[in-house]
Design a protein that fits this description.
Layout (H helix, E strand, L loop, with lengths): L8 E7 L7 H11 L6 E7 L1 H4 L6 H17 L7 E5 L5 H10 L4 H5 L2 H9 L6 H15 L5 E3 L5 H18 L7 E3 L32 H9 L19 H14 L3 H7 L5 H27 L2 H30 L5
Parallel strand pairs: 1-2, 2-3, 4-5
Helix pairs in contact: 3-12, 4-7, 4-13, 7-8, 9-12, 10-12
The structure holds tryptophan (TRP).
């Protein structure tokens, strides 16, 4: 493969195929990735190696990994313009992960809030991988020398640790790694649970979560049951502090229709929640319909998806191995 000739900045992100993708993943992340490939050299991967820090059903993990790739493509991530790959297809992640384990401190890992949360939630399986997960994530990132890492707020601490590890390594061995910046989308892109608008939409609370592959009638039912607010005014006004449920629905409607909050306020003047909720539901159904249909079509085309995986892995392996070779040399592994 040829050397990269472009001077484009590099961007990389991953999503764990540990649950079905939902509206929050789409509006908050994947949708915003689709048009970045003009400006950036983009890498997006299925973080399957991270998912086994929590027990998975093997058949489900396989299905979701491929389904996630199909959904990425259906959401507009053109595989010709973006490098889409599966983490476990690029051995350098595990290889650099081990090296970085040796440059990450026990104390640092102990302070990670995701580790504390997950070990509380899975008290019967606090395995070493769950603990060293941030070193593997640092490897995921640093292998590709990215400028930017688009992530959710919950991954900020892991990104900070990645920067610390990279600086520590560079201080010892010279400029091996680029120090990447996390890129965290603004509040507006944060989609909250439909029935608990103070928490992020999450697969762990399925009643308040709209899955990308969900049937239209199920989506409509979830919107009709969405919690608006306990106040008595029954009007559509943007007030995230006092009316978080309504504000969340307005954000979702805005994201799906490209209308502004002012336009939405005007559109629903004099109308109540009963009129508003199904309209938001319809807008979501129509936004997701082409994605679902295209993803369903792609999922049946296993040969095409395998081909994308192979091409993505080939490019990713090439770039990742360049960094890995440098690291191996720096730490003193024998070169033949
Ligand atoms: N830890 C991330 C999450 O749970 C997923 C992830 C793994 C990731 N490796 C990454 C995100 C590298 C960005 C870059 O959401």
């Amino acid at each position: 493969m040829e050397e990269k000739t472009t001077a484009k900045k590099v961007m990389l992100s991953g999503i764990q195929p540990s649950g079905d993708l939902h509206l929050g993943n789409y509006l908050g992340a994947i949708k915003t990735w689709a048009n970045r490939s003009e400006l950036y050299d983009c890498y997006y991967f299925m973080a399957d190696m991270h998912t086994i820090t929590v027990r998975q059903t093997p058949a489900d993990l396989r299905r979701r990994t491929l389904e996630q790739l199909a959904i990425y493509i259906a959401c507009g991530l053109d595989p010709e313009k973006n490098t889409l790959f599966v983490q476990s297809h690029v051995p350098a992640h595990a290889q650099l992960g081990w090296v970085l384990d040796c440059y990450t401190m026990f104390g640092e890992l102990s302070r990670m809030t995701q580790f504390k949360d997950k070990s509380a939630k899975h008290a019967d399986n606090i395995n070493a991988g769950l603990f060293t997960y941030p070193s593997l994530m640092a490897a995921d990132i640093l292998l590709y020398q990215p400028d930017l890492i688009p992530v959710g707020q919950d991954q900020k601490q892991h990104c900070e640790l990645t920067r610390d590890i990279a600086r520590r390594f560079n201080n010892l061995y010279g400029e091996v790694f680029k120090i990447p910046e996390p890129f965290i989308p603004k509040e507006g892109a944060r989609i909250m649970s439909l029935n608990a608008p103070d928490s992020k939409m999450s697969k762990s609370m399925p009643d308040g979560c709209v899955f990308l592959m969900e049937k239209p009638e199920d989506i409509m039912r979830k919107f009709k049951r969405a919690i608006t607010d306990s106040d008595t005014e029954n009007c559509i006004r943007y007030d995230p502090e006092n009316k978080p449920g309504v504000a969340n629905l307005m954000n979702i409607y805005a994201a799906c229709t490209d209308k502004t909050i002012d336009e939405i306020t005007a559109e629903f003047e004099g109308k109540g929640y009963g009129a508003f909720k199904p309209v938001v539901g319809e807008a979501v159904v129509e936004t997701l319909r082409p994605i679902r249909e295209e993803a369903q079509r792609l999922i049946t085309d296993k040969a095409y998806l395998s081909d994308i995986c192979k091409k993505g892995a080939e490019k990713a392996n090439y770039v990742a191995n360049k960094t890995l070779r440098k690291v191996y040399k720096k730490v003193g592994f024998l070169q033949l």
